[in-house]
User: Fold these one by one.
Assistant:
Number 1:
Amino acid sequence: MRKAGTYLVVGPFAIVLAFPFYWALTTMFKRDRDLYNTKSIPYVYNDNGGHAHWDFWNYMTFHHVSFLFKHTEYPTWVENTLIVGVAVVAITLVLALPAGYALARLSGGWGQSMGVAIFLVYLVPPTLLFLPLSRLITELDLKDTLWSLILVYPSFTIPFATWLLMGFFKTIPQELEDAALVDGCSRLRALRRIVFPISLPGILTVVIFSFSLCVNEFIYAFTFTSSTAHRTISAGVPNELIRGDVFFWQSLMAAVLIPSIPLALLYNSFLDRFIKGFTGGAFR
Amino acid sequence: MAEANDDLEGACSGLTRRELVQRGTAAAFSVSMFGGLAERAFAFAGPLKYKNRHLKGDLKIMQWSHFVPDYDKWLDNVYIKRWGEKNDVQVKIDHIDNSLLPATAASEAAAQSGHDLFQFLFPPAALEQQTIPLNDVVQEVTKKLGKMTDVAYRSSYNPKTKRYFGFADNYVPDPIHYRHSFWFNAGIAPNTWDNVRKAAAKLKAAGHPVGLGMSSELDSRMFLMSLLYCYGGALQTADNKPSINSKGTVEALKVMRDIYQQGESDEVFAWTASSNNQAFLAGRLSLAVNAISIARSAEASGNTALSDDTWIAPIPRGPVRRLGNEHVMGVFFIWKFANNKAAAKKYLVDQQLGYRDHFLQSKFYNFPAWTSAVKGGFKTMRKLTAADNHKPSGKYTVLTTIAEKYTTNIGYPGFGNAAIGDIFNQSLIPQMFAQVAQGKMSPEDAARSMQGQFKTIFAKWKEQGLM
């Protein structure tokens, strides 16, 4: 009975949240005639007269997915996104982990204020920053390279990650580190062997969140990379699949669904740790 | 306690086998990822090597993602490679969504770095001070092909500074698309605006309204200016002075208000450039003013019932004239900071001289700025369009007539100057029509109020010495 109640509450939420995925999945295999027919039921596959059919395999097409892979540089954009995402996450961890720890442990009263100040940097919108940064990227001769994104993206991932990790480190008892130091560990080794393993939920949160930010980012990706071969998913898809007033809807749906599925699975796999990561500093 | 100490000791000691495997995997992953990254990051570091050739450099071009994907494919994979090899230049074209072109140009201007050649889809007159004059390029092409079309001339020349601020390479006719069967059943032909007004209510009652937008988007801007011309209105005079407050404007505003109130719904105020395409392809609309992307998409969809019933015609006639804007006007410019100006100019000349291929590859979307760029001019273009085998037979033949007789530039009867570009970008014309259609202003007040705004805009650009 209690379980039924839970499902009753959670069920509608799950349906609402899963609906965009379902919509994208059905649309990506639709024939143009089905997609544009106002008599068709949009949630299923229909014949030319707009009548729904459950034997959907007879009324669907792989043409638009094939178009995405064969007539655009989509696989390259996925690869580029992956490269940028992994590099930015690595840079973020390398810089934000010590920064977060230092602010939490070593800066005393200043730590909190500096943490808030760093977080405020995260709130400056890219729409304001892209013009001066564009100049910087040109000066560094990084225009139209993936390096431009790898250099710029940490400007918004590091402040957020530092702030989040700072809160998380505060929840770890100081005594654990003291014990390690007494047993002969240096501070760095204590960090690596004691603090970081305990902080895994926080670190995972930073990894997943930073990666998601990189995948979603549009303005810098659009401004700093211009050739098709150097684009990431967020810049490549709208540029190649919206042509003037013609939208390639089915290919667009496929292009957004494909990367969102592994990302959703990743979130779900680490859901408990992810929640711990976000709420880690909240109860101090 | 001893156990805890053991763990701690272990933790602080050297590498375990498990750690070694973990680190090895991480290292292998890093090498595979960043090995690729380095290669990709510097992929354009060196010029393409042609056999036994000395390269004269690179040429970077920015233009829109053409609505015909195959045109871009041909351009990128065939045309520029062939041209590059012939001229010892490595050419690279970047394509972006047309709505993002102005923002990208602003970014390149701010950075003083970017592409050598940049194409706008309307006259880029406001950028004149940041670009080089192209009079020599126009002269060279004119010497070989004769006079350029008036629509191209007025979209690329500034009579005040006597400079060609851009090089118009093509223009796109803006016909009406209409569902023949719906109009046949209504017993009216969409050949005059008065007929469109009369049919609007009937067609809406039949479930197939006309699709004429009044929104901040390209299609609405173009079609509403065309409507003004047909009723004798214009944004400016032939000598480039604001003239929106006229009898013709008031009449056009009244007609559009009638069409909206009798035959449309509120959706037309929120349309995007793709809205009329989608509504037409969904079988809802009976009429839309658009480039041939609607007809071509209908054909590509495999819906022959819709495609065969989609007919193309010139803009409906008004009481004063029958004249419409081009749908888009391809105008290239060369930044002052461009690295390879010589190659950019050569590219423009050669592209225009061989425009027949572009005309065919774009499926009759791009008409050349110099008519004789297609040998035989409009006569040949008419033959080529007539050869298209989609139904109804000769469907696209009328495009040539529209391109030849019924197409003009934005800013008609004057030039496509900086003030007109500003008005165009701010969507002031759709705003004026929408306010009247929604009953927020009378046609007379709307025209008068717009004249005031126009005067301010024209004064601003005069002050900058561009008019």
Note: The mean pLDDT of chain B is 89.
Number 2:
Amino acid sequence: MKANRKNREKLPPHPMDSLLRSERLPHIWCPGCGIGTVFGSIMAAIQKSGYNLDKIAVVSGIGCTARMAGYIRLDSFHTTHGRAIPFATGLKLAKPETKVLVISGDGDLLAIGGNHFIHAARRNIDITVICVNNLTYGMTGGQSAPSTPFGARTTTSITGCPEEPFNFCYLASACGAVYVARWTSLHIRRLTNSITEAMQKRGFSFIEILTPCPTSFGRRNKTGNALETLKFYHERTVSRNDIDPKEAPVDFGSKIVVGKFVDMERPTFMDNYQYMCKNQVGNRPALGETITPERQVT
Amino acid sequence: MADKAILTGTYFMNGDYACCEGALAAGCRFFAGYPITPATEIAERMSRRLAELDGIFIQMEDELASMAAILGASWGGVKAMTSTSGPGFSLMMENIGLGICTETPCVVCNVQRAGPSTGLPTLVGQGDMMQARWGSHGHYEIIALAPSSPQEMFDFTVRAFNLSEQYRTPVIIMADEVVGHMTERVVIPRKEEIEVVARRKPDVPPGDYLPYRPDKDGIAPMANCGDGYRIHITGLTHNERGYPGMDAETQGQMVNRLIQKIAGNRDKIEQTNTMYLDDAEIVVVAYGISARSAKYAVYEARAGGIRAGLIKLDTVWPFPETLIRDIAVRVRALIMPEINAGQMVLELERCAGGACPVHLVSHLGGSVIHPDAILDAIENAGRSKVMKNKKPPVGRASRLSHKRRR
């Protein structure tokens, strides 16, 4: 490893060096893991976005993906399992000028953190949530997750997962997310553009990224190693922008629909909160009365 | 124009409201919470008051989220708090641990009701005292205050914020249903009379800053999110730089510092309020609403010719070890009334170290302890033949039932 470090010193600087806590390398991710690719896309998107890097914060929960917060040279918070979104909610509301990215895994965001996910989307908290979906709990060795396909083998469902998975994009859309997209770690260019786009949105934006987990998921299932998984994604994914995410399931038996499904405008929590704070106490609105909060000028 | 945040004046106000006013006077501008009896009034008043003060109130989906949100807000540079009662307090334990490990200033007010589980939602209890101390996993130190009146709800909330900012740790206000719902005279001082402490910020350039390198007092200056320091904050065991260190050495250094920054400053944190200690033979040690019953019982005992005294614990954690050790060797008995089956009395016994008998006056919740129960205990202890220097029974304190005199 010392030799590696020496060699690295001789190498020309990596284009992402300014965004990496390179002193923390090597990272913990397994060979073939898709998280590194996603990490690259996120960093590229951040560079492209033009935001002042001191005004971007990354919040993560617990899991393989959540370790990303520890490698990115930004204000970064590696919180408790499932609580990245409420932590980010507090941070964003207390410091509205900060661009807050929540980066975590499927188990963290949608199993233990599922309740926070749906409510943050409902409130339209102005954060970008990036969910790396590797279909399993990788860090603990491959247990079934709310994303695990029906029948897939995991260490807690060795004869096949008896549960149907969530369609995360459909869930996010139903809860009111203003931007919803799904890609795989194979769609690097589109993923990077999508993250940049999501970061420009005001409100709850959500991107799901399917990635291979050869160590904990692939070797117990037919997807096999990382290359085979990526080939599988290459063959099975179809790109369909602007379709109802209800019609875009992750169906490993037939096709995996990727694309940008939702891109709309809706007042954020802050817009509505500030509007309501100015409202007179005792003014009883009729239920169903339409109010249009002024857009917060940023 | 008067400062809308500090409502200087004299009020007839309940404890929950006084807690809100204390928080606002201390500079709290973020509240995240979830409705729960008997702490709901805190959230309700905060929602109205923070709207006036351009602060943020958010009603979260549960207490897990509330606690996480105030940590996030605190790192955003805003003083933040939440309030709850037993069931919610249990849910908050997870992120109280994160707050301790990441050294995040914030305040949690637990208006205790009787448990376990849903228990008696509308009635008083003091059963969460050990939960406040040990409820989150791992070993750590905590600061907890126990107000016994609406006025103290105001004063202690101000102090809770000051302690949290100074020592970079979550501070818990262990109130109870009676103190929360009791309406009494509350005096809110003028702004210049209220001491407000703010977290110490780093004065070094970003390249030289280590988020967890302590100054001489054991506390590390805190850079907020967005200050340009590009901090990494994690609940994993971390080194001075804030980076994870998965080894026994880093663990030892981190936990030791978390403990020492509080244990090493006990003399500055601990606060008690004493009565008649100079010549007291029987001393009642009490906290929260039970201290009010105790005070009455001590007056009655004195009127009856018994030399009784009172130590009211304003801070319950850290427990005032030195004071109790000093007192235990020169009194005939220590008595602790509490609305649980004996929690803080274990600390009292430990600190008394066998130097004098320790008696518990227990009530299991649902009402306050009647002063007569404490008076009975004082009288019994006064009659007791146990002499000083004679070895007292080791182990559990003898229990007194809370039978009342007719």
Note: Chain B has two domains: 9-193, 273-400.
Number 3:
Amino acid sequence: MNESEWRLLEDKAPTGSLTIAGVDVKPGHRVRLRPGKRGDVMDIALAGKTAVIESIEQDYEGNFHVCVVADDDPGRDIGIMRQPGHRFFFDPEEVEPLPRDEAARDTDSQTPTILIAGIGNIFLGDDAFGVEVVQRLSGRKLPARVKAVEFGIRGSIWHTRCSTVPISRFWWTRAPAVESRAAFM
Amino acid sequence: MIEPELNSFDVPDAQQSSADAHSMNPINVIRMAKAMGGELKRILLVGCEPATLGPEGGQMGLSEPVSSAVDEAVTLVEALITKIRNGDESQ
């Protein structure tokens, strides 16, 4: 793309709002994705999902494109940061604005999202502690917006590096018969 | 449980920040996330000191004392979830 083409594109500033199916939608609003029939495999995967409008863009011809981040995309944080791979563009007629109460359900909620990451290597004996705890937790009922997931990275670094990690709060759950000095999850 | 101070992690320069899948550990992951512009929110760490990491060839399964600490950790994590969801920052 040459410079004049870039300029053409930059002249088309993102739009603050758009009327879709008689509803005024803005970035931050939630929609349900209804990709057109001639879509690709990603459209098939995304059809019916709910998403948040990240921005509303315009192309050379002045056509509007609704850029969304899918609610259940594990990489949705990356999409919100406008990084590639987690933002998807749809024509305005391919998105269905959600009713306000449903649209407000997540975005207006003050409930924090919590990830419980089980860290540890299951081939290194007790390093698997975090993985074991998460496995136990995933069998229990967790509240909405709380996820327990195994992360395969090594945990034992905390053992050797704990003294060099500045810590603002510090106390231990004491394992029976184990002097608790390091953290593994 | 400990709460690492996230501001204290240096952001590595471009040379150091390449990811080595065999040396990923929580500290490296936090550093990398920062280097890539990720926003770090609150991180709490719940853990237990290992009695053994196994022989050189590795070992599957937890030792008896660590295994018996799992339930306590589950209870602690669930208590933390409740506290965080209730907006209790004081722990």
Note: Residues 159-185 of chain A have pLDDT under 50 and may be disordered.
